[in-house]
């Protein structure tokens, strides 16, 4: 069992850190809003620290799940950042969805300090984090990945090394690109069914068993039809992710016309007050 630090106890981080504690690791947590760290320790045991640096001191692995590029820089760098507390040979594992550019920047800073770095964004949502069934897509050296994978296993259904540092984030972008167009198509299909006078449930029962079936259709059609969007992964986060995808596509000369359009549809949802609604709320703007 390892000595670990976990930074960021949000919707995803809190249950992930809980699985690490339940697996028997020695876990110290940090959260910007201190009350959440206190609540986590009251529920799971372990210890909490005042700063990322204090949490990271003496840890073999520092794991992290915060918000965006700037948030990640804030918990890693500076006098109170995790890197200042980590000992050479320790490995930083980042589960935040961020750009490949900030990932490479921080991995370089880590390497200069003798630290390992693995980018390890996740897919599977709040339910996947709570059930310990996340898909984890990693980038980093083979040695860093091999060391970190048994720790990540506490909350992973699948954990794979996709290539060097940044490759995990690029894989996560593939995931978001694949979801964006699909959720819009599903929204149009369900809204069309309803306006045509059909029962959405009956339509889905038939078409989900053929070529149109998808995880989104199976798991989201009921709540989409009911106008309930409480599944955790927020539209605000999705727009952050799609901006990352569109910038990365520009760099490699890839074309993402549908992704760019759906990003604008999510902007409409934000304007409707749905920034914290889950991503299936695309159907709300179809009236
Ligand atoms: P969340 O509930 O909003 O939690 C974000 C966490 O990051 C909180 O603990 C927050 O601290 C902390 N944080 C944010 N900015 C910080 C800063 N500048 N310094 C220190 N701590 C900071 O978000 P989430 O849903 O867990 O998502 C976290 C990441 O996972 C995001 O990158 C998201 O895109 C990705 N993700 C989410 C899902 C999902 O279904 N939710 C699925 C896959 C990937 P406070 O408590 O103080 O605010």
From TrEMBL:
Residues 166-284 form the 3-hydroxyisobutyrate dehydrogenase-like NAD-binding domain. GO terms for biological process: organic acid catabolic process. GO terms for molecular function: 2-hydroxy-3-oxopropionate reductase activity; NAD binding; NADP binding. The active site is at residue 172. Residues 3-160 form the 6-phosphogluconate dehydrogenase NADP-binding domain. InterPro entries: 3-OH-isobutyrate_DH-rel_CS, 6-PGluconate_DH-like_C_sf, 6PGD_dom2, 6PGDH_NADP-bd, HIBADH-like_NADP-bd, HIBADH-related, NAD(P)-bd_dom_sf. The keyword Transferase does not apply. Its EC number is 1.1.1.60. It holds the Pfam family NAD_binding_11. Keywords: NAD, Oxidoreductase. Belongs to the HIBADH-related family. This is 2-hydroxy-3-oxopropionate reductase. It comes from Paracoccus haematequi. The gene is garR.
